[in-house]
Predict the structure of cellulase.
Amino acid sequence: MMTKNKSLQLLIILSAAISLLGELPATESSNYNHDYSDALTKCLLFFEGQRSGYLPAEQRMRWRGHSGLGDGWTVGADLTGGYYDAGDNVKFGFPMAFTTTMLAWSVIEFGRYMPPPEMENALVAIKWATDYLLKTVSQPNRIFVQSKSKSDSKAWGNQ
């Protein structure tokens, strides 16, 4: 099973590689047949698969359903949304903020090379995270965080 840090590192490396390799000029002697557009699509689908909350009708991962709809109710806050981390049922703020920052940065730097549908998917992915992150600081003098508990490790998805 991949650890959270390894999963995050893999996602960051893959996102950076896609962004950077898209900048390399093609040469006649190039024997590579990599489909970077397909890789980008799959990266963004990964984000969609990790969504928590009320999923939009246009969700491409049709097998996914709404989840985490009660997040925050015990403290009187709406903490639905955001992304799960590494197959767990936890939303860690720092990794989510970092990954979202890297995705946003890659859109700023390389968005002009993205097909319009994938640009839209990337912007939706960024907004999904930032909407949640803003909820975690929406009350005066309070910051909401979530940490992993033993019960999370025993959840159905982690058996």
User: Anything to note?
Assistant: The chain is about 45% helix and 0% strand. Residues 110 and 120 are 14 Å apart (CA to CA).
